[in-house]
Every structure is written in C-alpha cells, then in structure tokens.
Amino acid sequence: MIADSHAHLSHFRFEGRFFGILPREEDYATGELSREELFLRMQEEGVVLSIEPAIELSSNRRILALHQRYPRRVFCAVGVHPTRTFFEKWRARRALEGYLSSPGVVAVGETGLDLHMRGKKHLLCQTAWFLYQVRLAKKHRLPLVLHTRRADRWVQCLLRLFGRGGRGGVVHCFSGDGRCARRYLEMGYYIGIGGTLLQEGEDGQRLRGALKDIPLECILAETDAPYVLPTKRKKIGEKSTRNLRNTPLILKEVIGKIAQIKGVSFEEAERVIFENTLRLFRLSSDQ
Ligand SMILES: [Zn+2]
Q: What is the 3-state secondary structure (H, E, C) of the chain?
C-alpha cells in the first residue's frame, strides 16, 4: 500500500476535467481526468491514502471538505503556507485552532520559511506565522508539515529554539544535501521525497546523493500534486503539457527509485515507507 504524504487534491487545478500525469511505462503519458477518476486510478495503483496540507487560510475549509468526501483516504494538515502568510491578516490566525478539532486533522502545516519570496517584511511575516504554527502543533501534540525553500538553516535554528518537546514532523519536498538531512533527522523529522528524485538535473542529482544518508525508516513518499512534475515539461512530449497536473500516480516510480538507491526490493521500500507515514500521522492501515 502507498500513501502520498503531501498532495493538494482539493486544489482548484483538480476541478472539472484536467490533464494529469499517468503512471509511466516507457515514457510519461498524460490523460484527461476528473478528481473522481483520479481517486479511482489512485486506488488501482495502490495509493490508498493521502495527506492534504492547507495553503491559504481559506483552503482549510476545502481540505476538511475533501476529508468528508473521502473520510478513509484523505487526512488533513491545518495551517497557512509561508508564501501566503503575507496576504492573510495576522488576527485571522486564531481560526486555525478552531479547525484543529475537526475530524481528519492529523498535522499542522504546511508551514516554514520560503526565502524565494524576498523582502524583510515578508520574512518577518513568515516567521511570525511559522512560530505560531509550531506552538499550535506542540500544544495539540500534532506533527508539523514543513515547507522550506533556501531556508533550511533558519528553519532548523527556529525549530531548535522553539520546537523542542514537539512531535517532530516531515520536511516536505526535501531538496538539501546529506548533511542538511542528517540535521533534520537528529531533530526527529522525517524526510519527504517526491518527483524531484526522478528529475535529471542538479536538484535530482543532489537528492539522489542525499538519500544515501537517509535511513529508509525516516523516508516518506510524496508528490505535492498538482505541483513538482517528475521531469521537464518538454520531455513529456504531449501537446497539452501547459496545464499538466502532477498526480499521485507517479508514486510507484518514486518508491522504485528509492528502493534502487537503498538497495532493497520495491516491496520492502513500499512497506517501510507506508509504515513510516502511519507512524508519523498516527493512522492505522484499516482507517
Ligand atoms: Zn505543498
């Protein structure tokens, strides 16, 4: 069984009919799907559950509604994404605590720091929201879903100062090197690995190198669907790649690559990674 530890399936890009990436045989293929059909295809591919992190404050309602629609397959992380903090009113943060008591909530996030967004004001805003969510996670004994971009040092520093005694969490879409991964592991975090592992460029190469330092027992598989395609758009070779959505249907390939690098069978990697996901989010396989 496979779990997508990070997907945005309630995203508006999955409304109506859309072009999604399909499981790879020889080449990547795409197909027209609806959200309903995607969930059916996921079931066929063994993707039995997914964790749905919030993006904007308003998306918290959407993710909770998706849990209601698929109560045994979708579980939620309540929060505000670092790049969206600038657009939310600070006083609105209190709404988050209300959402935490909803059914299906298993984590806080996605939260962290994204230094791709420049400006001191933005950084200040992101830090305030991040620390607020770290506190919420500790108070409610929930793990964190971390988003860090060019900010691992800062995030690690803040977590050392303010995250102690928490339940840890997962560094989603990890993109650092082996040393950086080891520092997260020491703090009790899992490492989220997705489509970047399959990319041919520098990012993919660095991640494949870092994976050697990350024990299988600390790895979660993810897609960040509809984002983070496993290859350059032009390599997919279909006419409709402009609006192409990444989907959890690439997870078998991600896990296959992890198995290959770790020198274990696909079945072993699949089982261990699934158990890791259940352990972190305190879920059981017969939800
Ligand atoms: Zn995300």
A: CEEECCCCCCCHHHCCCEEEECCCCCCCCEEEECHHHHHHHHHHCCEEEEEEECCCCCHHHHHHHHHHHCCCCEEEEECCCHHHHHHCCHHHHHHHHHHHCCCCEEEEEEEEEECCCCCHHHHHHHHHHHHHHHHHHHHCCCCEEEEEECCHHHHHHHHHHHCCCCCCEEEECCCCCHHHHHHHHHCCEEEEECHHHHCCCHHHHHHHHHHHHCCHHHEEECCCCCCCCCCCHHHHCCCCCCCCECCHHHHHHHHHHHHHHHCCCHHHHHHHHHHHHHHHHCCCCCC
